Amino acid sequence: MDEPMRPRALGPARQVDIETAGWIALALEAIFGYFGILGVGHAYAGRLARAIGLLIGWWVVLVLLGALTGLTLGVATCFVLPIWVAVPVISGLLARRTVLAEGAPAAGLRSSAWLGWAVWVS
Measured between alpha carbons, how far is 72 from 18 in angstroms, rounded to an integer? Predict the structure, then answer.
């Protein structure tokens, strides 16, 4: 009679299938890439080193494109805008292909990847 109340489950727990995980990786990569943070989709796919390389490389490219636009007084904007739009989408497609080829990512990143990141940062 005095049983503790148990919370009701909102729904059955389910695994994310590989196809959905691939689309998630693509969306993460494209959306964050448009804001200058390329590599999130690759980190989701479990490729942390690639994600860090893409992030730093994208920042270098953005600085160079900004300098080029400034030096040409805005004429280079014709080239910068297509690059700004295309690179995150192409990188997202590569992140999706990685997920489809290697399987769905585990919950979070691999512990060894996090350990490597912690060692690299400190």
Answer: 45
